[in-house]
Amino acid sequence: MNENNQKIPALLIEKTSSLSIHEVLQMLAREFTNAVTFSTSFSNEDQVIAHQIATSGADISLFTLDTGRLFQATYDVWHNTITALGVEIKAY
Hints:
Number of helices: 4
Structural class: mainly alpha
Radius of gyration: 15 Å
Helix content: 55-70%
């Protein structure tokens, strides 16, 4: 990692320390247009993050890995998340 790359985390912390989660998500979407995406496994933590993304208005896409061997409960949560949050969750 070069010297400039080592400064990036410190710069992001400085730039976002006074922002709300929605403001951080919006800033990331603006700074990295069409490049911010979130991978969800539908865990509790991921559901909180997906909700924050969906309610922030930030242009952040969501995706998940579908092995074709997921439990039915996972597919149910997936469907319920799309319905509740009004988001698209792309499958890979």
